[in-house]
Amino acid sequence: MTVGLITGAGAGIGRAIALRLAANGMDLALVDIDADAAAETADQVRAAGRRALPIGADVSRAEEVDRAVARAEGELGPVEAFVANAGIEGVVGPIWDYSDDVFEKVWSVNTRGVFLGIKYVSQRMITRGGGAIVVMASTSAIRGREANAGYVSSKHAALGLARVAALDLAPYNIRVNAVLPGPIETRMIRSLFAQHEQRGRTSTPKSARKLGQPEDVAGVVAFLLSDEARHVNGASWVIDGGNTID
Ligand code: NAD
């Protein structure tokens, strides 16, 4: 596999995935709403010896996603690997008091963003008869969390989208899998735990006794995109140090 496209590639888990895929020999389109952050990741990918194309785009807007995929293919070549990683948090309060606007915003990125990415990437993959896709869900896709209606429901839906896509795209030799990280040490989780100290304590896996690192997720994503995982389709890979079963 030679060309990949990653959304939310300007920071955290998305950047770690970019560096891991570059180390594996992939050229990369790096999409982020923060164009400067995408450009920084691109510099690091180039330093690793691969081609990189930073693209400023909002994954919740169909025309921007379509344009980003077209640009990636025009400048780098056919996208064979896609990681729908961009996502935002939304802890604001209990459901009776949860802001309608935050709910809509979180769904627009975490769910519609995943739908649009898969739609516009897979249209092109279908014409070439192959590809691999990974959806960044969360352990919040398979469990409840208090005061987090937007995020938890959006991640349940993202997992559902991955499963539908796995079935729809299987006839075209395109695999779709989801990864479900527990708390991973990035800006997102640091700001969440700073606001909700109790959540930080109860979310740290007792089994691993530490938070996960972005690289812990990147390795699994790289495997799922590789030919080693050719018989893995529609799967949900929990990456949480054992927290969910604790
Ligand atoms: P992060 O905040 O460090 O990075 C997210 C990146 O996505 C940022 O560069 C941001 O600019 C970009 N982004 C945000 N909205 C966007 C949009 N509309 N269009 C394009 N780019 C956008 O977060 P992270 O912790 O690296 O999270 C990455 C993904 O992993 C998210 O989907 C998140 O829900 C998921 N996840 C994170 C954790 C965790 O503990 N950090 C756990 C489970 C799942």
UniProtKB/TrEMBL annotation:
Keyword rRNA processing in record: no
Coiled-coil positions: none
GO molecular function: oxidoreductase activity
Pfam annotation, one family: adh_short_C2
Superkingdom classification of source: Bacteria
UniProt entry keywords in alphabetical sequence: Oxidoreductase
InterPro entries reported for this sequence: NAD(P)-bd_dom_sf, Sc_DH/Rdtase_CS, SDR_fam
UniProt record similarity statement: Belongs to the short-chain dehydrogenases/reductases (SDR) family.
Protein name per UniProt: NAD(P)-dependent dehydrogenase (Short-subunit alcohol dehydrogenase family)
